[in-house]
Design goal:
This protein is mainly β. 11% of the residues lie in helices and 47% in strands. The chain has helices at residues 35-41, 52-64, 238-245, 249-254, 292-304, 311-315, 390-394, and strands at residues 17-20, 25-28, 68-77, 85-93, 97-108, 111-126, 131-145, 152-167, 185-197, 201-215, 220-236, 258-270, 279-290, 318-319, 322-334, 338-351, 402-417, 422-436, 460-470, 474-484, 510-514. The longest helix is centred in the N-terminal third of the chain and has 13 residues, at 52-64. The radius of gyration is 27 Å and the shape is globular.
Length: 515
């Protein structure tokens, strides 16, 4: 095995050093990786019969370590021996450190201009054990035009830092038997994020988690976090608290500082590969629970203090108790010059115990470029409710306990330019869905979910979209208008037909563009 051989370099080079393990003969210039890392990745064993699955699994595992740019595995007949092969593995290393930068500029009806920048640093081989360190620093702002029509004013700003430490194995106090096809990883994460809405609130989130990721098969992947802890600190601007939050008990409880601690698990299926060019499917199911082991710590503090104190009183922060489920299904039909994409999403959050609302950062929203595109971000729903206050025109922020959305999109090529390096594409789509409350909220009539009235509170939107793509950049422009609006006519706004029936709405076209 050659873990640091260069392209076009001869394996007969006399400068190679040699290390012998139980199953491997390792020849190298620099000791860039520990032998046990290679032994875990390689699925070939002396004396075993030739296996195409072991061959492909070995290559996949070596690539999955993110240490090598090229992986080559070849078999050669053993001299003077019948029906025996020697395996030669040649690995060309990649750079062990990487720095990246990403800059986005967008514009929409929701704001005049938005920009975000992120800086990333990755080390792929800490301690020569294929341990990875990822550090990301990000920041962004949104600017909107002033009511006086002069200049721009700051609407929101966000910044944060996140760090991931990834080990290419299960880090557990006991041994776990792995399937040969499984590529196990342990991920330890920590982060800080600050979201500020000017003249409204400031939300600070500190996160920490321990999780495990592995492939059940070539198409199935699991992610399990037995430990997941978030601290959400909230500061409200006095005027916003008095005029908006205090008048809505649901919002008031949502904006309380909270501990979100529990477990999470996700299952992903994707068969987007060369064997499924005509049709392919993506499915993701995720579940999160908060409050279970935090409640146990709460009880322990009570026992130690003789029922005089508990975790919530000591930290002056409530424990959020809830279960949240997300289901995302997508299916694609691909043709020579066009494709059809479908998507359905269901989200459901259930508070339990002493909690009667989801924390603000775990509630569902609808509207915007990644949702129902004919509505502004966070303005749709819940149900048929529409906030008509002056504050809502400046600060739309509708949330709910449940979200159900879907869309059908037909995509097609319009024009190929510059030898196919740039393609002008078009699409037409239909979105449908909404958010709802699971309990009746007297301050928001029509917001509660009722199955018998589902079709009446189901907005739909249709629009054409066009854009171009190239090898170095992308741009898209979207226009959307509502076909059906659940808002009663007495509170319809912005030229949108509020009769709850199928109708287009003149003057209500939503547009957005970005690069």
């Amino acid at each position: 095995m050659y873990p640091d051989i260069l392209l076009q370099e001869s394996t007969e080079d006399s400068s190679f050093q040699t290390t012998q393990t139980r199953n491997l003969t390792i020849k190298y210039h620099q000791n860039i990786v520990r032998p046990r890392v290679l032994t875990r990745a390689i699925q070939l064993r002396p004396g075993e019969r030739y296996s195409t699955s072991n061959y492909s699994n070995t290559i996949s595992r070596l690539y999955d370590l993110n240490l090598w740019q090229f992986v080559s595995l070849q078999y050669k007949d053993v001299k003077d021996t019948v029906q025996k092969l020697d395996a030669y593995i040649q690995l060309t290393p990649r750079k062990k450190q990487e720095v990246s930068t990403n800059f986005d500029v967008t514009t929409s009806n929701d704001y005049a201009i938005g920009s975000a920048i992120s800086l990333g640093y990755r080390h792929f081989n800490l301690n020569r054990a294929a341990n990875e360190l990822h550090i990301t620093v990000k920041g962004g702002i949104e600017l909107r035009g002033q009511t006086t029509g002069r200049g721009l004013s700051l609407q929101a700003q966000e910044y944060g830092i996140n760090a991931d430490y990834v080990l290419p194995r299960f880090m557990l106090p006991f041994r776990v038997r792995q399937n040969y096809r499984s590529t196990a990883k342990t991920r330890i994460s920590a982060g800080y994020n600050n979201l500020r809405r000017i003249d409204k609130f400031n939300i600070r989130t500190i996160t920490g988690s321990l999780g495990y990721e592995w492939n059940e098969s070539i198409y199935k992947r699991w992610s399990v976090k037995p430990f997941n802890l978030n601290f959400v600190g909230v500061s409200l601007v006095p005027e916003f608290e008095k005029d908006v939050v205090d008048k809505n008990p649901y919002l008031k409880r949502s904006f309380e500082p909270a501990f979100i601690g529990g477990e999470a698990a996700a299952f992903m299926f994707s068969n987007d590969d060369i064997f499924h060019k005509k049709q392919n499917t993506y499915f993701r199911a995720a579940i999160e629970e908060s409050g279970g082991w935090l409640e146990a710590i709460n009880g322990l503090v009570k026992a130690v203090s003789g029922n005089r104190k508990d975790l919530e009183s000591v930290a002056n922060t409530n424990i959020s108790r809830f279960v949240r489920l997300d289901l995302d299904y997508r299916h694609y039909w691909n043709y020579n010059r066009s494709s059809v994409a479908t998507r359905a999403f269901l989200g459901l959050g259930l508070p339990y115990g002493q909690s009667d609302v989801l924390p603000y950062v775990r509630q569902f929203t609808s509207g915007g470029p990644n949702s129902i595109r004919a509505w502004r971000l966070r303005t749709l729903g819940p149900g048929s409710y529409r906030d008509t206050s002056e504050t809502a025109l400046i600060f739309p922020d509708q949330t709910g306990d449940m979200r159900f959305e879907g869309n059908v999109e037909y995509r097609f090529n319009i024009l190929r330019m510059f030898g196919g390096s740039m393609i002008l594409k078009g699409a037409t789509f239909m979105d449908f869905g909404n958010i709802w409350m699971l309990k009746t909220d007297t301050s928001r009539p029509g917001a509660a979910f009722q199955f018998k009235n589902l079709y009446k509170k189901w907005p739909s939107a249709q629009a054409p979209v066009c854009g171009w793509t190239s090898v170095i950049s992308s741009s898209a422009s979207t226009g959307a208008y509502p076909l059906r609006n659940p808002i009663p006519p007495i509170i319809a706004r912005a030229g949108i037909s509020g009769n709850g029936r199928w109708a287009t709405a003149a003057g209500a076209v939503r547009t957005s563009s970005g690069t």
